[in-house]
Amino acid sequence: MELKKVRLNFYKSEDTPIVYIHGSGGTGKVWAHQLSAIGGYAIDLPGHGGSADDESISTVEDYARHVVEFIKEEVGQAYVAGHSLGGAIAQTVYLMAEDVVRGLILVGTGARLRVLPELLDGLINDFENTAKKLVEMLFSRNFKDEGVKRKTLEEILECGSEVTYRDFNACDKFDLLSEYKEGRISVGVPVLCIVGKDDIMTPPKYSAFFEKTIGARVVEIEDAGHMVMLEKPEEVNKAILEFLEI
Ligand code: COA
Questions:
Q1: CA spacing 20 to 30 A to 207: which of 77, 81, 84, 221?
Q2: Which residues, judged by CB distance below 6 Å to any ligand atom, belong to the binding site of ligand 1?
Q3: Which of 167, 157, 69, 68 is nearest to 115 (CA)?
Q4: Which of 85, 114, 191 to probe ligand 1 with, by most ligand atoms within 8 A of CB?
Q5: Atom 3 of ligand 1, nearest CA residue
């Protein structure tokens, strides 16, 4: 099937060749700290923020096809940074078009991203309350900035029930665990994993798995949960900048 042409909105700072992909129910704004300190292109996935939608999307591969097009058209070749669902998309972009990928920066993500069934159900049947509960799960208990949490909730609500459900459902179906385990995926570019030590959505063992199977460099960050790039921006930026020196 031919890919529907979708104009993706993106936030750009300098020409740094990094393309940042946000997670479920989010937008490119989640990378504001990385854009200002490091630069790059933070996209809004189809159906999110300022991007038009492609209603035929249902899987990580469907999203990845659009990201591959974006990289080819806007950047040429890039480090692909992805958070959560965005990390699944980043891995898939590499598998689809390794020639456009200089390296992978996988933030709070994994090779398989199963989702709590009650979360999936709640996103359809009780969206507002489920979004509030979700936000409580996204941050470390030690993160006290209520303004950042409020903004995260607003983004999810703006994204809406349908698209947020679609995102989490795509995560739930994403599963490359056995491919990595059995050595059927080999990654020929440098890989950095960044994860909050208090992340309960994609726990540190998901990143440790990448260290074991593909030799990824792993940076675990204290007092941070799943939204590590918002919770501890300086530590995340330092990890990325050190990685880019490779
Ligand atoms: N990397 C390495 N190991 C992984 C993995 C990953 N990405 N994903 C799962 N595994 C491992 C688990 O650690 C587990 O190993 P164990 O049996 O030694 O404990 C095994 O694979 C099976 O885990 P999982 O696929 O998660 O299935 P499950 O039926 O045990 O649990 C959930 C399902 C939904 C309860 C669980 O995945 C969960 O709590 N998820 C986190 C919350 C959430 O919704 N996150 C959203 C992510 S976007």
A1: 77
A2: 84, 110-116, 119, 171, 177, 201-202, 205-206, 209
A3: 167
A4: 114
A5: 206
**Length of the chain, in residues:** 246
What letter does residue 94 receive in the DSSP assignment? H
Residue among 76, 95, 89, 65 nearest 16 (CA): 76
Distances (CA, A) of 118 to 88, 115, 157, 173, 180: 21, 9, 18, 16, 28
Could you report the per-residue pLDDT of 144-191, keeping only the tens digit for each?
999 999 999 999 999 999 999 999 999 999 999 999 999 999 999 999
Residue 205 CA: nearest ligand 1 atom is 2
* Domain extent listing, the chain: 10-243
Is domain 10-243 classified as CATH 3.40.50.2300? no
Query: pLDDT tens-digit profile of 60-82?
Result: 999 999 999 999 999 999 999 99
Angle at 57 between CA 13 and CA 60, to 5 degrees: 70
